[in-house]
Amino acid sequence: MTATDTHQAIHAIWRIEQAKLIAGLARFTGDVGMAEELAQDALVAALETWPKNGVPEKPGAWLITIAKRRAVDHFRRARMRDRKHEDIGRDLQADELAIPDFDAALDNDIDDDLLRLIFTACHPVLSREAQVALTLRLLGGLTTDEIARAFLVAEPTIAQRIVRAKRTLIEARVPFEVPHGDDRSGRLLAVLGVIYLIFNEGYSATSGADWIRPQLCEEALRLGRILAGLASGEPEVHGLVALLEIQSSRFAARTGPTGDPILLLDQDRSRWDQLLIRRGLAALARAEMTAAPPGPYTLQAAIAACHARARKAEDTDWKQIAALYRVLAQVSPSPVVELNRAVAVGMAFGPAAGLEIADALVGEVTLKNYHLLPSVRGDLLVKLGRHAEACAEFERAALLTRNERERALLRERAAACAS
Question: Which Pfam families does UniProt cross-reference here (predicted)?
């Protein structure tokens, strides 16, 4: 194996093992920041050693062994002044001596450790921006630069968010644990919200020159699948995964050759990924198996499934979609849900019915700078033949959006109305 091949192998192994490694170390040290540093030390050791000696048979075991030894050294150098560190250092040393097969030890607890890490990274003591950055860093394995580029934020800003998030977790004495009871349900919603936010930013970028950022969607879907494996009894986890699988199936059809957006009704559905659709429908079935009323992610997945099952745009069951949005508005009321309901009602019962719902949202403060409100109103006005009003709405939407591709599309629609 050449040095290049070895480095590629190390990168692939690190991608697979990083989250498990950090999760296992965080359980031993009780400090997510320290766990990441120890994992990085193990990676550096691999980069120095493996090109010369070859990739070990059990690379995950090798990495955890090195990292745990570094942890022991760290606590020894600190002279174990802090009693807690003394206990942890002694436990680590005893664990190292008593369990030579660290790979087996890691596998025994890895599911619990990963679940702990997910809940810790999305702890409510952190801001949503910090939760997203820390989740992508610790569980997604993205570098600070990759996260910054994905969200079009300066790299030092992302670095500061991550550093502050780790410090906040330590200062707040956040336990490295899976919450229980009512606290677990609330915290799980926060975790799902973070994954959903990451996916949405990739699916329809809020700013920049690209309409979609597949890397973020891939990371969100990967995290969702991991969570579904760890919390298989939670229907909303399967609901979210179902939604992400089905939405991801459209990627090849969502943009043209030059990256221009292609709207849902204009997409070539033969390019939709049928494997992802089948996976999504299977996840939706798992979510719907529970006797409990469906949650917001399961309802959104059911809406996405209506689109996925329609081989042609004109086959879409818009009345069913409108009914699902009505239920979603009751389960998780928000102006954005109402705006989406306006679209569905407009398709199912005519543009005038949809416009009535959209018009009622014009004074909504939270939608004041939301470009999709004038965009939806413009679309409905076009269908009613009110082209001058539609043109003004599309122009307003173009001014509000920060995404260059979307702005160009909206201006094209405005120009079409004007002509």
Answer: DUF6596, Sigma70_r2, Sigma70_r4_2
**Residue 111 near residue 90 (C-beta atoms within 8 A):** no
> What angle (nearest 5°) sits at the alpha carbon of residue 218, between those of residues 214 and 224?
145
DSSP 3-state helix, strand, coil percentages of the chain (rounded to 5)? 75, 0, 25
Q: In angstroms, rounded to a whole number, what is the distance separating the alpha carbons of residues 92 and 94?
A: 5
* Max Cα distance, the chain (Å): 79
The arithmetic mean of pLDDT across residues 362-387, rounded, is 96
pLDDT at 101: 43
Residues 270-315 have pLDDT tens digits of: 999 999 999 999 999 999 998 679 999 999 999 999 999 999 999 9
CA–CA gap between residue 293 and residue 185 (Å, rounded): 15
Query: Do the Cβ atoms of 103 and 64 come closer than 8 Å?
Result: yes
* Angstrom distance (rounded) from CA 196 to CA 403: 19
- Please report where in the chains the tokens 């910090």 appear, as a residue: 130
Per residue in 80-95, pLDDT tens?
A: 555 555 565 555 555 4
DSSP 209: S
